[in-house]
Design brief:
Layout lengths: L5 H7 L8 E5 L4 E3 H17 L7 E5 L4 H13 L2 E4 L6 H11 L3 E4 L4 H10 L4 E4 L7 H6 L16 E7 L7 E6 H14 L8 E3 L6 H12 L5 E3 L5 H7 L5 E4 L1 H8 L14 E4 L6 H11 L4 E6 L3 E5 L16 E2 L4 E5 L12 E6 L6 E2 L3 H6 L7 E9 L5 E6 L4 E3 L2 E3 L1 H9 L4 E11 L3 E10 L7 H9 L10 E4 L13 H8 L6
Parallel strand pairs: 1-10, 3-4, 3-5, 5-6, 9-10, 9-11, 11-12, 12-13, 24-25
Antiparallel strand pairs: 1-2, 7-8, 8-18, 13-14, 14-15, 16-17, 17-19, 19-20, 21-22, 23-24
Bound molecules: methylmalonyl-coenzyme A and adenosine monophosphate.
Length: 509
């Protein structure tokens, strides 16, 4: 029944007055709810006119725009599987994702069409459209001729709605398969847990190719019938200017750090705001406290994953307890969170171990990787997050680290194994290790430590330049050091903790 289609639930929450404002962009464009309804119907009709098989993937690598968000909603509406791709990915990365997901349709920017379309067609795509942030491109040129009414496709709760690539701790990303109910159940829980109310207005300043911006922020506003102030590329001055005309803001810690650097961020500017939410990476207690002092607001920190959407959150209501900086709050209603040691034994309150999760928010598995999927679940069906933490006596969850080899930089995941793979192929390189070190802006950034083959001499800037030619810019280590050898433990494993200690002061003022 279409009632299980996530789009049907979002559409049911549109306000009665369809001609009221749904989205206003930072360059003054205004979209009504009727615009959203008509445009998503036309795009859904275009997709369905291609006669794709059920479960077809629609891969999208386009700059953030309202039309890109409409394309996501149209994909849900038409019953296909949305596959968002970071706009910073270059051809080697896109080749992997498109080769792995085999999308029926690929949508890219006109500037990238030259290299994206051959990759798409080689992987069996039926069509490649273009979509640009100035609303040009073949997608809209074709959609404009389609009917502006559409019957939402029937979907079951466990049917796939999206695939998000993530957690390539072994170097290659895995496609997390999220169902309509994974997303809808989480959106419904967060709507009430975060106190969404009539009159709320969201400032949307996150990318829409990851869970935070595409699901938590977008679904949060839509399922409450709330209008959005749409910021296509985060700029702290723009956000501060919008604060008096909004009530909710969501960001990664880097956004909060940059907003605090704006003198115009005052208590007065935030007087009309109801809620500031942070996640995707650890929020430093200094940032949490500085925000409180400057604005009078206490940031609500929550914890999520591409595989599980949101799993814990600090409380919204004071009656549920204080929002505690440095913690990620309580397991959400309906979500189970536990801490186990390596032997699988549940640990008592306050003891540190591996965080595991169970609930309607937990994904269906990794796309075409049944083995890997099995490895990441316990025998009794709990998902192993790869995060290390504890639950205290009051029930607050604290993440203290990660067992997975992962750097989270400005909210983006950077997998050392992937970068090391490329560096180790470079001429003259014997081996490398990429580790995360603290960074005042991005929270954590990568540092590459490299050893040369006998007789070879390495140039750090050359190593970084050749990485930049191959990989998304946010993945490029911010420093590269050559050493005679990498520290190893008795098992021969590189001791990345020693390297982290050695370089941790690199970016600290
Ligand atoms: C940009 N640069 C970065 C990053 N972003 N370097 C390291 N880490 C980054 N995150 C570099 C670029 O390579 C470029 O370097 C220079 O900074 C400026 O690039 P630009 O694109 O202009 O950067 P920016 O505009 O300053 O972007 C910073 C940003 C952006 C706004 C913080 O990274 C961002 O929007 N992050 C949000 C990510 C997100 O949505 N995470 C949610 C994941 P060069 O000039 O050398 O090329 S979802 C998730 O984690 C879970 C599910 C959850 O819980 O939400
Ligand atoms: P992703 O792989 O993009 O889904 O990122 C999920 C990872 O981000 C989690 O496994 C955590 O390591 C990290 N993460 C998300 N939210 C938080 C948070 N509030 N504090 C610390 N780490 C977080």
């Amino acid at each position: 029944m279409s009632k299980h289609n996530l789009f049907a639930a979002l559409r049911a929450a549109f306000p009665k007055d369809l001609d009221s404002l749904a989205i206003e962009t930072d360059d003054g464009l205004q979209y009504s709810w009727r615009d959203l309804d008509r445009a998503t119907a036309m795009m859904a009709n275009l997709l369905q006119s291609l006669d794709l098989e059920p479960g077809a993937r629609i891969a999208v690598q386009v700059d953030k725009s309202v039309e890109a968000a409409m394309l996501y909603l149209a994909t849900l509406r038409a019953g296909y599987v949305f596959l968002p791709l970071n706009t910073a990915y270059q051809s080697a990365e896109i080749e992997y994702f498109v080769g792995n997901a085999e999308p029926a349709v690929v949508v890219c920017s006109t500037r990238n069409f030259g290299w994206v379309s051959p990759i798409a067609f080689k992987a069996g795509a039926r069509a490649v459209f273009t979509l640009n942030e100035d609303r040009t491109g073949s997608l809209l040129e074709r959609a404009v001729h389609m009917r502006d009414t559409h019957t939402v496709a029937q979907k079951g709760p466990d049917d796939l709605a999206a695939i998000l690539y993530t957690s390539g701790t072994t170097g290659r990303s895995k496609g997390a398969m999220l169902s309509h109910d994974n997303l809808l159940s989480n959106a419904v829980v967060l709507k009430s847990y975060w106190g969404w109310e009539k009159g709320d207005v969201l400032i949307h300043a996150l990318p829409i190719f990851h869970v935070h911006g595409l699901f938590v922020a977008l679904h949060g506003a839509l399922i409450n019938g709330s209008p959005m102030r749409w910021v296509s590329k985060f700029d702290p001055k723009t956000v501060v200017r919008l604060l008096p005309r909004a009530t909710v803001f969501m960001g990664v810690p880097t956004l909060y750090v940059r907003l605090l650097a704006e003198p115009a961020l005052t208590r007065q500017a935030c007087a009309g705001m109801r809620l500031f939410i942070s996640g995707s990476a650890p929020l430093l207690i200094e940032t949490f406290r500085e925000w409180q002092e400057r604005t009078g607001h206490t940031i609500l920190e929550r914890y999520g994953m591409s595989e599980t959407a949101m799993l814990t959150s600090n409380p919204y209501l004071a009656s549920q307890g204080p929002r505690r900086g440095g913690t990620v709050g309580f397991p959400l209603p309906g979500v189970g969170v536990r801490v186990h040691d390596e032997t699988g034994r549940e640990l008592p309150a306050g003891e540190i171990g591996g965080i595991e999760v169970r609930g309607p928010n937990v994904f269906k598995g990794y796309w075409r990787m049944p083995e890997k999927t099995r490895e990441e679940f316990t025998a009794d069906g709990w998902f192993k997050t790869g995060d290390v933490g504890m639950i205290d006596a009051q029930g607050y969850v604290t993440i203290v680290g990660r067992s997975k080899d992962l750097i989270i930089s400005g909210g983006y995941n950077v997998y050392p194994a992937e970068i090391e793979g490329y560096i180790n192929e470079m001429p003259g390189v014997a081996e490398s290790a990429v580790v995360g070190v603290p960074h005042p802006d991005f929270g954590e950034v990568g540092v590459a430590v490299v050893t040369a083959k006998p007789g070879a001499s390495l140039k750090a800037e050359q190593i970084l330049a050749s990485l930049k030619a191959r990989l998304a810019n946010f993945k490029i280590p911010k420093h590269c050091a050559e050493v005679s050898e990498l520290p190893r433990n008795t098992m021969g494993k590189v001791q990345k903790n020693l390297l982290r200690d050695q370089y941790k002061g690199l970016f600290q003022s």
